[in-house]
Design goal:
With 155 residues, this protein is mainly α. It folds into two domains: 1-37, no CATH class; 40-154, no CATH class. Helix content is 59%, strand content 3%. It contains six helices and two strands, in the order ββαααααα. It has helices spanning 42-48, 54-62, 64-67, 70-103, 109-135, 145-154, and strands at 2-3, 10-11. The protein has a two-stranded antiparallel sheet with strand order 1-2. A hairpin with a 6-residue loop joins β1 (2-3) and β2.
């Protein structure tokens, strides 16, 4: 037998509301969460903060139950900072590879393309790894970016 969280009265297993005070019970017939409860756990929100990079990072820093959660804030900030670093490195690589391509008259094209593919695969693997670590309720700190994210999340 379950008890009402508001008044403490007994609530039958199938009822959606307390018979004494009328408050919604936490376990409804459909299994939905009680009003005011977080729609998802912190580890799922932390993993989803990496999904679209800085976009989901900013979203999880703004929406209500997660903007106060230090675990989600850390992963959201790390996602934002990692996205900025990947974008900056992509721009830098474009300049370097364009210059090398022009200087070598196209002879280095295959080598440059191979390096670019390997860099993108490395960033993709890091992205998946960070999502996995967040979902596993771990705070994996990327060097240089993780301490910045920790500092921002704690402020």
């Amino acid at each position: 037998m379950a008890f009402c969280a508001k008044c403490g009265a007994e609530v039958s297993a199938g009822s959606a509301f307390c018979p004494s005070c009328g408050a919604p019970s936490g376990a409804t017939a459909q299994g939905s969460a009680a009003p005011g409860a977080a729609p998802m756990s912190s580890n799922a929100a932390g993993a989803l903060a990496y999904l679209l990079g800085f976009i989901t990072g900013i979203i999880f820093l703004v929406i209500e139950p997660y903007k106060r959660d230090p675990f989600v804030r850390f992963h959201a900030f790390q996602s934002i900072f990692l996205s900025v670093v990947v974008f900056a490195l992509s721009l830098l690589w474009g300049v370097i590879s364009g210059t090398l391509f022009a200087v070598s008259l196209g002879f280095l094209w295959s080598l440059l393309a191979l390096v670019w593919v390997l860099l993108r695969l490395a960033f993709f693997a890091l992205w998946l790894f960070l999502m996995y670590k967040a979902y596993s309720k771990e705070r994996f700190m990327v060097p240089f970016i993780g301490p910045l994210a920790e500092k921002q999340a704690s402020s």
